[in-house]
Specification:
The chain is an alpha/beta fold. It is about 35% helix and about 15% strand. The protein folds into two domains: about 45-185, Nitrogenase molybdenum iron protein domain (Rossmann fold), CATH 3.40.50; about 205-345, Nitrogenase molybdenum iron protein domain (Rossmann fold), CATH 3.40.50.1980.
Length: about 350
């Protein structure tokens, strides 16, 4: 994985009703102490929708004639959306970055405990069409992916295939879950998972009131002598906004430097002192990367770093959880990252 993760759009719902974005207290997602449970995986649900089902997407429409039994989920987040509904996919992508030796992300593995493990497909270089044919799927779901029109055509000759609605890698986690639910005939269960997960996110501002109104800047160390900082419209920034933080003036200034296809801006090491925010958040793929960053004079020159107003996201699994949102990854991320963020907020003067 490169040092800048692929763009993902997060759709934020107004929080006035207590439901904002991605997580929820019902169904045991929030323990009595306020600590998120490890996984919101649902029990197998009875099909509630009528078939055939027609789902529109960027390449047209896909008709699913009957409730699918053999499901292949491609891309990021879609496997979680299937598994959270209690459906066991026959195949999902092998996740090398952040996954275990068998290619499973930790929250996906936890949700599959006691359930059949799917085949993991090597999709890094190209889609393994022959392997997919051999698995005889009833449906192929890829609402959060980057499949091309040509790949879609090939997949559609194997089984009904659902692509992303508009933009490659640009579907919100909510829409991924809802599209998946509709394709599987489980719309009501999918809607409940989304509402539950949105409530969990909204609850963080009550559990950690020190976060409310604090400004943020969110980035990572680039490949050369630059930092990369995300604009206000990036999924990571939108998540922090959803739990009560606000983009700093520095973060807002990045929007004017970006075009519609850009979700981060390179900031020279020489400008480290201009990275202003109550809290600065940065991600690192490993403890070694974080340690190396701490040796950089430019890193130490960021005011929030020297003043203890810095929150580090360390480790491939946590970076994935804070970048590829799903109803399974969000509770995992909240439990492991939000306390670090709250500690940084405590140090804001």
């Amino acid at each position: 994985m490169s040092h800048v993760l692929t763009r993902r759009r997060l759709v934020v719902t107004a929080a006035t009703s207590g439901i904002v974005l991605a997580g929820a207290a019902p169904r045991g997602l929030l323990a009595q102490s306020g600590t998120p449970a490890a996984s919101p995986a649902a029990s197998p649900s009875a099909v509630t929708d009528a078939f055939p089902v027609t789902i529109p997407h960027v390449f047209g429409e896909t008709v699913i004639p009957a409730p699918p039994a053999r499901v292949i989920a491609l891309g990021w987040s879609t496997p979680d959306a299937v598994i959270a509904l209690g459906v066991d996919p026959v195949a999902i992508p092998f996740q090398e970055w952040g996954g275990d030796a068998e290619g499973f992300l930790p929250w996906t593995r936890a949700a599959l405990e006691g359930r059949p493990l799917p085949v993991t497909l090597d999709t890094l270089a190209e889609i393994p069409f022959e392997d997919i044919i051999g698995l005889e799927p009833d449906v192929i779901l890829a609402p959060f992916s980057g499949i091309t029109a040509e790949e879609y055509d090939t997949l559609s000759r194997i089984a009904p295939t659902v692509a992303y609605p508009e933009v490659a890698w640009g579907t919100s986690w909510q829409d991924v879950q809802l599209i998946t639910g509709r394709a599987l005939g489980l719309s009501a269960a999918a809607e409940q998972l989304v509402a539950d997960t949105e409530t969990l996110i909204a609850s963080q501002s009550e559990i950690h009131p020190q976060l409310a109104g604090k400004t943020f800047a969110y980035g990572n160390v680039g490949q050369n002598t630059t930092f990369n900082f995300y604009t206000t419209t990036d999924i990571r920034s939108l998540f922090l906004t959803a739990i009560g933080l606000e983009p700093s003036e520095f973060t807002r200034s990045l929007d004017a430097q970006a075009d519609e296809f850009t979700y981060y801006v390179e900031v020279s090491f020489e400008l480290a002192q201009t990275i202003e925010a109550d809290i600065v958040v940065m991600w690192f793929g490993s403890e070694e990367e974080y340690a190396a960053a701490q040796e950089l004079p430019a890193f130490q020159a960021i005011p929030a770093v020297s003043e203890g107003r810095f929150a580090a996201i360390v480790g491939q699994d946590l970076v994935m959880a804070t970048s590829a949102f799903s109803v399974l990854s969000i509770p995992y991320m909240i439990e492991r990252f939000i306390p670090t963020l709250a500690e940084a907020a405590d140090n804001v003067g």
